[in-house]
Design brief:
The protein has 233 residues and is of the alpha/beta class. Helix content is 27%, strand content 21%.
Length: 233
Amino acid sequence: MLNLILYSDQIFPDCSAIDRRLVELLKAQGTGNRLAYVASGPEPDRYFFMNAQSYYDRSDLDLPLFFDLDEPHAEEEIAALFACDAIHLAGGHTCEFLERLKRGGMLERLRNWALAGGILVGVSAGAILMAPTIATDALFVGRKPEDITDGDALDLVQFEFFPHLSDEAAYLPALLRYSMHTARPIVACDDGDGIVVTGGRVECVGNPLWIYGGAVLAAGEIELHGLSVAHGL
C-alpha cells in the first residue's frame, strides 16, 4: 500500500495540514518518527538538510540521517536508509536528482521500498520524481514538457506533479497546453498545498488544480480517470 506525501514546498505554518497527515501516517505505521534525508545534489554545508531538520522538529519528528547520492555507500549504510520510518526526497534540480538516483542504482530501490508501504516524502523536485515522468520540470528551465522523452521517474502515481504554480503566470497556460499531449492528469500546486496518497486514495490538501485534456477539473471529476480522490482536507 502506497504512503506518499507530495509537498510543493515546506513553508511553516502554511503546510501544517500536510504535516499533520505525515504525523498521522507515521503513527499508523507504529514504528517511530525517524526520517532520512536524500539530497538532490551536493550539500557540503548541509544548509538545506539543517533547514529540513528544523522544519520537522516543529512536528516532533527526527531527521538524523543525511544520504548523499554522490558518495559510495556500503550496504549497511543503504540498509540504514531504508530502516528509517520515512524517507524525505529533497527539493532542487529535478533532472540532476533523477540522474543521481539512476547512477547510484537507487531509483528502483526507492520505488520498491515505497511499493512495500514505506512512507516517501517529496518536496518540489522530490515530489515531481514520484510521477511516471519529470516532464513538468521542463517549465522551470525554459523548455516544453511535451518535448521531454527521457524523464522516466519513480512511477508511483497515476498523475504528473507540478509545484510552485503561482510563481509565474505563464505556468498554467503551459500546463494546459501540455495536458493535451499527455494521457495523465497533472496536479499543479501552490506552495502550501499538497497531495497525500494512502489507503488507495489520493487526498488533496489545500487547493491543488487538476489539469486534464486542456481543462482545469474539480478533484471529484478525476474519479472518471481511475483515481479515487478526496478533497478539502
